[in-house]
Amino acid sequence: MNPVVERDIMHIGRVMRATVVQCAPEMMLVEYWRNRLNNRLETPRLTEHQRNTLLELLQELDGIERRTNWKSARRISRREAQEVEWL
Questions:
Q1: What confidence score (pLDDT) does residue 87 get?
Q2: pLDDT tens sequence across 37-56
Q3: How many domains does the chain fold into?
Q4: Counting Cβ atoms within 10 Å, is residue 34 exposed (0-12), middle (13-18) or buried (19+)?
């Protein structure tokens, strides 16, 4: 097991949660962390535990994204809906 990879995975997990959930759950941050996790998944010779941890973090990120998109969704007015129909 590569200790540098292990520390990076732990770091990604801690910082990802803090930035996406507490600071600014914006799409840019979600994409940034998704790219970090996917890049780390391409690391040669990951252990099964490391790979599973990365996959769990990706699932957690997907869940965060779904929740924040749901929270930010708002009902549109009839007027807004009619304006969209004209486009």
A1: 42
A2: 999 999 999 999 999 999 99
A3: 1
A4: middle
User: Considering only CA atoms, which of 62, 50, 71, 72 is closest in space to residue 4?
Assistant: 50
Can you tell me the distance from the alpha carbon of 51 to that of 33, in angstroms, rounded to the nearest whole number? 16
70: its two tokens? 């749901």
Structure tokens at 24: 């600014």
Q: Domain range holding 28?
A: 3-86
8 Å CB contact between 49 and 24: no
What helix, strand, coil percent values describe the chain, rounded to 5?
80, 0, 20
